[in-house]
Every structure is written in structure tokens, then in C-alpha cells.
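> run fold Aminopeptidase N
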Amino acid sequence: MKNASAPVTHYRKDYLPPDFLIETVKLKFELDPNATLVSSELMLRRNPQSDGLAQKLFLNGEGLTLKAIFIDDEELTEKDYDIDESGLTLNRVSDRFVLKTCVEIDPANNAALEGLYVSGDKFCTQCEAEGFRKITFYMDRPDVLAEFFVRIEADKTQYPLLLSNGNKLDSGDLSENKHYTEWHDPFLKPCYLFALVAGDLDLLADEFVTHSGRKIALELYVDKGKLDQSQFAMESLKNAMAWDEKRYNLEYDLDLYMIVAVGDFNMGAMENKGLNIFNTKYVLANPATGTDQDFENIESVIGHEYFHNWTGNRVTCRDWFQLSLKEGLTVFRDQQFTEDMRSKAVKRIDDVKVIRSYQFAEDAGPMAHPIRPDAYIEMNNFYTVTVYNKGAEVIRMLHTLLGEEGFQKGMSLYFKRHDGSAATCDDFVAAMSDANQFNLDQFKYWYSQAGTPTLRVDYDYDESNQCLKLHFSQNNAHESASEPYFIPVKLGLVGTKGNQVSFSSAEFGLTNVEEGLIIVTQPNQTVNLEGVSEEVIPSLLRDFTAPVKLDINYSDQQLAYLFANDGNTFNRWDAGQRLMQRFLIDEEDSIKESIAEAFRALLNDQSIDNAFKARCVQIPDLKTLFENDPNGRIDSLIERRKTLKKFLGIALEDTWSRLYNQLHRASDLDLDGVSVANRALKNASLDYMAFSSEQHEAIVIKQFEDAKLMTEELSAFSIANHHELEVASKITQAFYDKWHSEPLVMDKWLAIQASVDSLDTLNRIQTLRHDRVFNIKNPNKVRALFSTFAALNFSQFHRIDGAGYRLIAEAIIEIDEFNNQVAANLAKQFSSAAKLDDARKMHVQQQLKKVIDKENLSKDVFEVVSKTLESIE
Ligand code: TRP
Ligand code: ZN
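> ok
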């Protein structure tokens, strides 16, 4: 970091309530791409909860050109205030006053995509976490809640549509072909939920009638010509609204709900009150352009942002350390939504895969933090899988412990206590605890300690007493974790004839059950299960009831047995994954026969659903394997994974081609669960067939040419590339010719090419980044090409000559010039560097030193890279 002052670390323990509150905000926007005027009128008053002593007031503001400033209608002179690069200090303030400011900003040159910016031909905003300060001077913190009034003025031809939060109060024409709209949001909100959109967009309009009979207008705005890709998102919104009423008894509060899709967006979507702004990736899809996975993602993100209206907006966060209060809870709610809409067991598998690959790695790396972090340099770096997904696991544990009814009682109390205000994680846990008379003191270590605990289990069976003893020990290597966790463990017992054996536990109130919940609270703890009538294999941590690593010494035979017989679907899948790791990590060569045999049995079982089968035949990904391998042996993992896949392809040759022929229906255009499941298993089969079937290439070509669904077309395209079929370049070109004007489809086209395990991929990426469909200013494109390469292309990112690392380091340096958030996210791709071998570590170090020496490096990238470098020194 040259030139810049040393970055400041913010600590959770330093929280102080604000000295002033803002009662109402009146904003006027005179929109112009290069010179927008923002006039603001803030009604400020001293916070009765502050010490009352402050004589000065600081307001955040960055990159603003001040045009005018008044207090109580008196223009200020130079001595009345100071301005620096972080904001405005008012040197003398009374207990109650009106501050008026006018600033000028330049949205067209805002490539950071934070604050007010231009995407395509439209204006839009992104204010979370701390982007509002790039729009006007304000107390940019989530515990300052205000009532917003917004007036927007702009050219009528270019920007026929002028939107902001809440209800539209007024609109009309102005001189010089301009017009205006006025908006009022009756719900108090922090400024990170502010939104504005202006442009010329197509509208899909609909309506939802709430359970109390109120009519809500639903408006989905997309770029001109994209209405044929907007219906599914609208259906998802209506489903989400109905679901939240049914499962949580939560009703929408405004009369209007708007969603706008924009092509340039740093994250997935944003829950601004009444006016969500979405990445097009989570709105636009029809069966020809979007895959089955895209549809599931859209449904889930639409749900997520909608659910924030209560968990995030009506009750918001006191400070950004509490981010998991809204994100962990809302991810949990969107996961439940998908479970209820689709398959519960399969959704659980997909969610756990994210935890085990990305979250466990984050928890073991240089950026490890508790779900409620204690410190940050740049808040944007803490929108992480830990805060979001581990946060959701922590909420899920509460749900497991309290049951649906108890959990809902806790939610009601939470809303009763905190509606309309800013709360903390402690407040949430207190509501859950008080509503259920359930002591959660020890449970709270899940909020304060980082790292993944290992839960080790040994067991022995005493036949004469029909007693199974389970010996648990928990262990957490992370420095922040000195206290034992409160760990819910759902379990069952599998007998020798595939039967589920019942058991009792006086300690945990279980009598003759086939499945039950016990709680591990001690560093070492023995649990006695009574009435166990026969020798069994314990099936533990069913449905992954806690985000821990379960360490239990099953024999290969026992694993294969559980894979075939466990009464819990999730654990069945898990046994299969563990079995494969015996080959991949433990290097047990002989086990591949039993894997093939287990696959054959599973695939021939007519009673099992195809979505589950498709998950089971997926070999653990390299990210998970690397995380699980104590020695992080990249080359060996890559080699062994290829070997296993090829072996299974050949050993089950007949099964794969039989499945393909059975399930392939070029004419099936349905998006229902059964069709989606059939396609998933069929395309997995086609992938395995590449190792044996002679007609394979012809089948891939035919599937590509006949495809009417993107799922079908993309699978064929992907298989052709990954198996480097002769036809690959032809297919790649044909796909491009067909889709080059659909940016979201081109993202897929880029991502697949970036993930091919071939020495040629680096060159390919150099060519692709100069293709006209690529644009380094667009975050979706950067993610498609660079993040995919670093995250999914193990062999090429970790090239032993360091060229993969260099590619990403240079991209970080280039992108940091204009978009710090995206650059920092890319920098996180180096976070498991400490686990690499010395040669690779040296290359990473060399590249990251180049990054850290860059002039004017952002604090975003500085935080990630400095911590990563520390971890490998
Ligand atoms: N609150 C958003 C969500 O989870 C996340 C988000 C959208 C975000 N845009 C952002 C976070 C920009 C940080 C920066 O739904
Ligand atoms: Zn969210």
C-alpha cells in the first residue's frame, strides 16, 4: 500500500449509539449521467440514548462535490464545517436542526457499482453496506432509521420510468422535456435500503392478494425485449409471498413490490424496501436460455430478497458486525422455501456441499471469522459463506433444538420486541430462548468462535446389557475457540438386515425411537443408548444437524453398507461420499470395485428418486477433497479423481448407456421435479459414457443439435469441452454463433471454457478476454472467466509453473483500479495457499507481493491479501 494512510480496523466492541438521529430525509435527484445533483434535507435531533455531550457531528460522504450547505436555512461558512475524503464534520450543532446540502456526483463513471451508477442506459443504486455515503452526506450506519421522501427529475424520453422505495405520491411534467416522480416510504429504514432506478424498461405486472385480503401490485422491470425471460421470476415471487404467509405468518406491508433487473451488479441481488434490485442472472431465464439450476437459483434468490422484508428490513441490524442476524436467518428461510417447493433431501445435500467445500475452507484459512465477526477493515469483505451459510446452519440448529413450533414462537417474540428497530444477534437468541424457556448460553459460542469443530465418535456395544455407548469428543483447532460447543446430533441405528433398530435414552428423553436427537455439550462425553437389541452401525449427524466434521471410524464394508441401507437419505449420500474419499484421499486402490458395485445397486433400485441418484454418482469435487486432505496433495487428488471417474465410466458402461437411453427425451420441455431429476441423472450418465461408448461423440452432437432446453444444450457443450472431443471446437463456435447476443448465456460459454483441465486453457482465456462478449467492467463476466478458472479449474489454476496464479493476480490488479469489491472477491481465491506445497506457495507469495505493492491498492484487497500473505510466511 503506497501513498494511502494505513487502513483502519473497526471493532465490534467499540459500538456506541449515534449522537444524533435522523427523523426524516427529503432527497431530490436531478439525474444526469455525468453530473447528477442530489439535494438533501435532514431533520436531525439529538439521540436521547447518547451521552448528550457531542458538540460536533460527523456525516459520511465520499466522492461528493459540495455545492451548497445550510443549517436551519442559514448558509454555512468555511469555519462552520470541515470536509475530508471520508466526510463532513459540522463544528457546532444544536439539539435539533435541519441540515440541507446539495452535492454533485458522476454516476456514469462509477465502475465500482456502489452508490448511484449507470448500468446499460439506466440509473440504479447499490447502497449496502456503505454505499449511501457516495450519494449524499449522511449518517451511513444501519442503526439510524429514518422516514424517506424522494423526488426524482430526469429527461422524459430517456428515463420514462423513475422509481424509488415505498409508494408513489405524485408525478408530472417539467419544462425542457423533463418529468418527475415523488415517493414516500412510510417504514423507517436505514439508508443501506435506499434505492433509485431510472430508465426505459419493459414491465411485467401482476398482483398478489394477501391472506388478509389486501391487493399488492407486483412490478418486474427488465431490459427492453426480455419479457419472455421474466415470467418465472414473477411466479417465484408469488410463491415466496404465499410461502411466507403460510409458514411464518408474515404478510407483505406496502401496496407495491417492485423488482428491477440490471446487468452490472456486484452481488446476487439487494432487498431495498419495496424496490429490489437484482443481478439479471437471478431474474432472466426461459427454458431455452436458462438451465434447471438457473431456475432453482432464481426461485431461491427471489425468495431470499422477499423474505428480507421482515428479516432484515422490518427488523434490521444494529451494526454491520450483526450482519448474520439478517443474512443467516434469511438464508435459512430461503433454504426452507426451496425444501418445501422441491425435494427436501436433495436441497439439504446441495446446501451441505457448499458448507463443506467453501465454508470449511474459509474457516480454515486466513480470513476465518465467527458468523458474528469481531473486527473488519472493509465490511464488504464480510459478506461471506461464513456469515451467510454457516449463519444459516446456526439458525437451523436452533430450529432443530426448538422444533418448528418452538422456533415460530421465538420468531413471533423477536418481531414483537424488535419490529421497526435495529437489533443484535444476542437479541435474536434471547427471543428464541425466552419464548421457549430454553437456555442458550452455551449455544452462543457458535456466534463468537471461528473455525470448524471436529466431532470424534467411538462406540462399543454391550450385548448383555443391550447398551450402545457413544463416546464423543469435540475439538476445534481455531485460536478463537476455547469453549466447547452445544452440538445437536440427530441419530439412528442401522441393523445388519438393513433394518432401523430402535433405542432409548433416559438422559435425552427418548423411548423406543428409531431416530432421536441428543446434544453434545462437553469436550468429552459418553452417551448411553439403551434397549439396543442387536449389533448396529450408528448413523450420526443425520441431515447434518451441526456444521462440524464428523470423525468416525467406519470400515469400508460399513460405509458401503450405510450407502445402501441408511434410513436417512442425507447420511446415505454422505456414506457414498466418504466411500469415494477412501480411494481419493486414503489411496485405497482396491475399494474402487465396491464403489462400482454400490453405484450399480443404487442405479438399479427403482424405488430411489433420480435427483438423489444424480447427487450420489457425483464424485466429491476437488475443492472439498483438497479441504479434507490433511496434506493438500493437489496433483495426486486430480489424478486419482480422474482415475476413479474413468474406472466408473468403464465398469458401469452398460448402466450409463441404459440410463441415457431410458431418460433421454429430447421432447420433454417440462420443468417439474421429475423431469429435472431425469435430466440431471441422464446428463451425469452421458458424462461417464465418454470413457467407454463408441457412439458417445455422436450422441453428444445429437443432443446438442436437438436441444430445446439450455440444460440439454449446455450439458452437451460442457461434455464436449471437458472430454476434449474432436467436435468440441465446432460446438463451441456453434454455441457462440447462436447465443452471442445473450450476455447471461455467454457467461456460461466463458465459464465452461475457463474450467477445462487442459494446458491450453490459459491461452484460451487470454483470447477470450479480448472477445467482444467479454467486458472486464462487468462483474458477471469477471466471475465467469476468472473466478470460475480459480475456483473450479484446479489443475490449471495451480499450475506448477505459477502461470495460473499470475493470471489471477494480474486480473486483481487491473480490476482494483475501478471495482474494489470484485477485486477483493477474486483475491479470496488464494485463501487456501497455506495448505499448498512449497513450490506453489512460493509462486503465490510472489504474485501476492506484486498485488500488495500496487499503488493505491484498495483497503478491500489489502485486507484479503495481507492476511493471506501472513498465513504463508
Ligand atoms: N443484502 C444482499 C443480500 O444478501 C447482499 C448484497 C447485495 C450486497 N449487494 C451487495 C452486499 C453489495 C454487499 C455489497 O441479499
Ligand atoms: Zn441477504
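Residues 454-546 form a domain with the Immunoglobulin-like fold (CATH 2.60.40.1840).
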